[in-house]
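Please go through the protein record below and see whether the fold suits the sequence. Record follows.
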Amino acid sequence: MSERKSYPSDLSDEQWPLIKPVITTWKDRHRSVSGHQGAYDMREIVNTILHQSRTGCQWAYLPHDLPQKSATYYYFAAWRDDGTDQVIHELLRCQVRERARRLEDPTLVVLDTQSVHAAAGVPAATTGRDPAKRVPGRSADWPWTSSAWSSRSSILAANTHDNTAGIILLDQVAEHAGGTVRKALVDQGFKNQVVMHGAGLGIDVEIVERSPQDKGFVPQPKRWRVKQTFGILILHRRLVRDYEHRPSSTASRVYWAMTHVMIRRLTGANTATRREERAVTA
């Protein structure tokens, strides 16, 4: 790495080895025809992606002491398109579950959605208006596991019905969770169509109903952790609003944000709040 003052989002010497093997292997498989290895260290490329994810800055506003847009976006797009970002995320997810003394593949998931506003310039064909939350934009749909981290993420238009999102998520769970998932918890936005689809996959879908006597926000057993996850990930400002033209880019941002959080968890580094970050950079 080049000598520069570190940013709070940078990977430490303890954290970088957690994902270095995946990045190094990828780099070895994608050597330049001319043999040129590139002007930037791979750790710095990852640091730049994480910096942009955390701060939410535009590509043109990346700090001058980090790799420039052309180099960083090349790798971001390549890892998005070939699934390297998902490979890294899955590797860390398994380690988080192992540290929590859980099996690698879960037996229970919680399905939920989160609608966010789309920025100006995002193609209208990939967005919609969530009639319940009155949010024009996209919806990030999650199968959350008991280790508190999603195994997959789907990005849909915000006007996509929860039934459609739930069916997509159940299919992803059945495909990627090794057939171990036996139960899924959902809120009242999901209907019987999702329950029936889950039954066909061997997954018992339970609609967790809110008690009519509850007022305000009342945490529901197990389901409340997915809301906590939303709150943690929204600290990554690139996820506060959807700036990406491609839904696949938004999904990649989610994977990188979760990767960053899991890396910090595995190395015992708490996620810094925005107040703490300002104090460090002041």
User: Anything to note?
Assistant: The longest strand covers residues 135-145. The chain is about 40% helix and 15% strand. The first helix runs from residue 20 to 29. The two ends are 24 Å apart (CA to CA).
